[in-house]
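Example record used in the benchmark description.
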Amino acid sequence: MTAPTTIAPGEGRTILLVVAHADDPALFLGGTILRWADAGWRIVCVRVTDDRWDSHNLTEAATIAANAAEFRQAAAAMGITEIVELGYATDVLGDVSEVALREHVIRQIRTHKPYALVTFDPYAMYGEDNQDHIKVAAAVDEAFWTSQFPLHHPEHLAAGLAPHGCFERWYFGRSVNQVTDVIDIAPVLERKLEAALCHQTMLRNYVNQVRMQARTGGWALPLLDDVAAGGDLRPFVEMLIRGGARQVGQRHDLDAAEEFRVVRFGGLEGLLTRHGRRL
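Model output (structure tokens):
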């Protein structure tokens, strides 16, 4: 059991969150984003893909438009300050140069100069079947280091961007296997649910996927059949969001929680306490 981490006041500082897909922020860490926003942090969210194929019974163009609009709605509901769209095609990041993707992240780090960098944990990928998540995790993890090297991408410096070092890295995933920080999200759980429900297009496609798997196994799920027929998505999403948050919370004697692996000052915090002084 890990004691809950206290959210410090933002005091104008920035958190840079890099995700693969539109629904990643709300589903993976929507409660923590809300807690940060409520504490006055400036939150910039980079979406790497355009989720162009994540829908059911929509055209590609309509899918791109719907998911972008729903992403903006969810971001507003969570208090995200700014969105950056990289526009890669979804589900094929495995074909993309990791170095090219990393350059985009370095540029955003140097532009926004975040206190904390937040993304998928590249070392907690057990059970992770989405290659986009894996590719983003690796690119962002290395961008943390290379954003500090002045010889990496001198074109950035020519454009007025300077090297920057993030103080904290927050990593999340389907299963964080070295939890260092737990955020109590019980006070904002219902708001996380509302943010998740903004993603009607992607979640209805997920319902369709689950129904296909169930049918292959010889099962029927009337709740999902109703949703697929145009019924209310809320009961299903409530089950996912509340159930997942409570399951995590139980491990830490909380009603609802989210887990992270956090690295502060590159793991050299002892150097600060022994030899540093506050600016």
